[in-house]
Amino acid sequence: MTTFPVVFESSGALLAGRVHRAGDDLLERQPAVLVTGSWLTVKEQMADRYAAELAARGYTAVTFDFTGWGESGGEPRQFELPSRKIADIVAAARFVSSLSFVRPGGLGYVGVCASAQYALAAIAAGAPIASFAGIAGWFHDTESVAPFYGGLDGVRDRLGRAAAALAAFHRDRTVVTVPAYEAGNDRAGMFLELDYYANPARGAVPSWRNEMAEASWLPWLTFDGLSAAGAVSVPALFVHSDGCVFPSHIERLRSRLRGPVEVVWGEGTQIDFYDQPAQVSFAVEALDAHFAATLQA
Predict the structure, then answer these.
(1) How far is it, in rounded angstroms, from Cα 25 to Cα 35?
(2) How far apart are CA 64 and CA 247, in angstroms?
């Protein structure tokens, strides 16, 4: 396996990426796939896990940190801003499509958890992505996401905190942060027991900064991750299970997407699909079959 860093620009910020390939022959053109992970994460978490598996199967897999996250530039830091992430995906797709060691004929995209909804929006916005796949895809709107945060009262409370944090940023550029993950802490981005984010052997890796800009609640809680589907016609794959978030949304997406759709139903919880061998292997088998059929030879 060969990995090496790359850098590209998105809206004036320099973004840090990593290429994953089997072998070190840069003259061999391979099919290319972009891979991104969940909200509040960096490339070294679930994205690199899937990239390594796809590289072993002959794909050039590229991961990257979004603007304001990880090794990438951009301010404010740790801000979950869907519109910014969507623009980054468009920029990343154009960059990877320009690489001389990737095969012409189309770029694939794998979005794990929340980045799947951003990728659909990026495709609708014109990102040069020829084939899409969502793994345990998180696609929400305000109505569906509210129960995670105590209903509409919890949403209003978080929007109020976010508005105060945004005012502080406008006043003197202070970025008010809360933990990205802390079990039992109502102010944290994720407050349920989630071993992936607590365990250094899983997602609590040194490169991950466990912080979220509190202003993130404003765009996160009001984002519509389902509405872009009607403008997307590329082939799509959804790997999901009853134990993943919003299982009923997969059928809603299937009915709205304009291109061919395949759904592969497995077993396991949401975070099992981030890194557990059984779920990752199950997903990668489906990804390989999907991209072999939908990326031009």
Answers:
(1) 21
(2) 27
pLDDT at 297: 62
Per DSSP, 112 falls in state: E
Q: What is the model's pLDDT at position 23?
A: 87
Range of the domain at 190: 2-294
Nearest residue to 286 (alpha-carbon basis) of 297, 296, 273, 270: 273
How would you classify residue 257: left for phi > 0, otherwise alpha for psi between -120 and 50, otherwise beta?
beta
Cα(114)–Cα(108) distance, integer angstroms: 17
**Average pLDDT over every residue of 39-44:** 98
CATH of the domain at 172: 3.40.50.1820
Number of domains in the chain: 1
Rounded Cα gap, residues 21 and 60, in angstroms: 5
- pLDDT by residue (tens digit) across 107-146? 999 999 999 999 999 999 999 999 999 999 999 999 999 9
DSSP 76: S
